[in-house]
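Exercise: predict the structure of this protein bound to DQA.
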Amino acid sequence: MTGFRADHLGAIPAPMTETIYVLNGPNLNLLGLREPEIYGSTTLDEIAGMLEDRARELGFAIEMRQTNHEGMLVDWLHEAQAEGARAVLLNAAAYTHTSIALLDAIKAISTPVVEVHLSDPKTREEFRHTSFVGMGAVRTVEGHGAESYRIALEAVASGEV
Ligand code: DQA
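Solution:
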């Protein structure tokens, strides 16, 4: 019977592993090569591996994705809700500062969204100081390099988010 296991006590619900979506926006596929003095030398694949290991330790699964297309991020936010994700960690990269569509998508779903950035955009050029993503997110973790993702994951796992 799906979702249940039988033992001598009868049918007991099996614990379901909750999934955390980790959505990454434009140019983050070039992490490691791209402006390493700002974003560090860790690649997105290495971040994915680190997050998968930490998530497993914490009893969660990770769905890690990257796209250079704004509408794809909108579709994936909707999907996170439809699939019953526990939360979304969203590094929307430059769309953070431009995309009302992403803000609307975050507001349209009940899945909590944590905004993530490697750098601290508020200490950089003025055009990075506005975050439409941050207007909808329940929490922002920024300025810790690749560690920002782990901190955001742990905030979800601990129930803070
Ligand atoms: C970024 C910050 C954004 O301002 C920038 O456009 C990015 C990366 C970060 O993770 O520090 O592409 O989201």
